Amino acid sequence: MKKISRRAFLSVMAAAGAAAALTACGGSSGSSTAASGSASVGGSQPGGHKLTAYAWDKNFNIPALNAAAADYKENVDPEFELEVIEQSGAGDVENAITLAGSAHDYSNLPDIVQFQDHYIQRYVSDYPDAFVPMEGADVDWDGFGKEKLSYSIVDGVHYGVPVDNSTVIFAYRTDLLEQVGKTIDDMTGATWADVTKVGEDVYAKTGKYLFSCSGDNGDLIYIMMQAEGVAEFKDGEPYITENETMHRVCETIVDMAKKNVCYLANSWSDYIDQSIQGDMVAGVVQGNWIIPTMEAVTENSGKWQITTIPTLDGGEGYASNGGSGLYITANCGNVDLAKSFLAYTFGGSTQTYDNALRDGGVVTTVLKCADSDVYNEGVEFFNNEPIYKQIVEMSENVPIIEQSDYHVRAGVYLTTAVINTINGSNLDDELANAEQQLRFEMGL
User: Which of 39, 120, 151, 216 has the fewest CB atoms within 10 Å, counting from its CB?
Assistant: First the structure.
């Protein structure tokens, strides 16, 4: 077996560390089944009607795949069957590709794999023979949100089809805003300084933080940076100490934490179970896959509304966080069927996306699908506003910024810098240390 490179190994370790956090961004139709684990399954046979796929999250991604399978079976191929092999998380899929690619033996891979957006370009680069491009498939690529689609394009070649729309929402409890004399309109296009002032008033009045974020990853930093159109990386290297926007974003988070505007949770469970579902906050800023978590607090139904992200200097900000796409592997024995299935369903079928939304809360990134009746329905939990249509419209404005498979590791180091600063350290020193550690890990 070929030895795995240090870069590839670190990439897998970074991805595996993020898998639990991104899983959320993360009855059978009769044409799809799910089996637990990452056992070998193999690809399809030429000329057949069956495909196999690795995917994770039985409450989100797998219902979306089931919806697609049922759609394709009903409207294209009555004999079609999709066997979905459930994985425990994204890391299982990444490990499978690494092992197969390192051995140059793809015979144990399924026809299709679900893959995290933030890591697919590195894996296509490291193991180009592991994937079959989507070129030649009947897909209107111009019909997708451009930022979401950018993840699956490598050197100008389309390698996959997006599953979901991970556009970030900033949701607010309008009843709590009213207690400090504010409305959702006041929060739309605001500066972070404006939001901080409102947050101070909300905390003083209600004892609730305005919003929370996980204190062990860099989600909030990434979201705020992308809303400014600026990345954590530049030309493949960390862009931290010389990045003025980075300094302002971290400085803002430190200020909000000190003023009890932003609650820094000490774990993912603390973030989800305590701060959001424990009703500690008057707002939520995250990829829209967070919505089912919010809806679990049924007593707050009708009190929420969504808007865009604040920015440092004012104006509506847009970002995306989490998400995945579907990719055909080198072991696929029926590439034409795989391309046809992905192109017809996730490439633009309203039926697929309507049912994926109903069954799993998966929001489309195909712009035309937002015109369906399902997407235009008011959502009771969010004051009967058609939030899913709003989210798709917002996705058109998310800026494309440089990505890296060290995205998660950068977030860890940057979040540590912020927490240390809150505890009395100097921000410039902490950012310099974060950059040094990240460069070392990247082998730079």
Answer: 39
Question: If DSSP codes are grouped into helix, strand and coil, which group holds residue 163?
Answer: coil
What's the start-to-end Cα distance of the chain, in Å?
A: 27
The residue with tokens 């089944």 is 33
Tell me the pairing of strands 112-116 and 324-329.
Answer: antiparallel
**Residue 273 CB neighbours (<10 A):** 14
Give the chain's count of helices (H) and strands (E): 17, 16
H or E element, residue 438? helix 427-441
In the block, tokens 């932003």 appear at 262
Report d(CA 209, CA 177) in Å as an integer. Answer: 12
**One-letter-per-residue 3-state SS of 364-392:** CCEHHHHHCCCCCCCEHHHCCECHHHHHH
Instruction: Indicate the DSSP class of residue 142.
Output: G
- H-helix or E-strand containing 418? helix 407-422
Rounded Cα–Cα distance for residues 232 and 247 (Å):
11
Name 157's Cβ contacts closer than 8 Å, sequence gap at least 6.
133, 135
Q: What is the pLDDT of residues 162-197, one digit of tens each?
A: 999 999 999 999 999 999 999 999 999 999 999 999
pLDDT tens, position by position, 194-222 = 999 999 999 999 999 999 998 888 999 99
Six-digit token pair at 253?
């988070």
Other Cβ atoms closer than 10 A to 424: 6
Which stretches of the chain score pLDDT less than 50? 1-40
Cβ density class 362-389: b for 16+ within 10 Å, e for less: bbbbbbebbebebbeeebebbbebbbbb
* 197 CB-near residues (< 8 Å, 6+ apart): none
| Block residue for tokens 């069956």 | 50
- Is 189:315 a contact under the CB 8 Å cutoff? yes
Convert the pLDDT of each residue in 32-71 to its tens digit. Answer: 444 444 444 666 677 789 999 999 988 889 999 999 999 9
Radius of gyration (Cα) for the chain, nearest Å? 22
SS (H, E, C) 101-132: HHHCCCCCCCCEEEEEHHHHHHHHHHCHHHEE
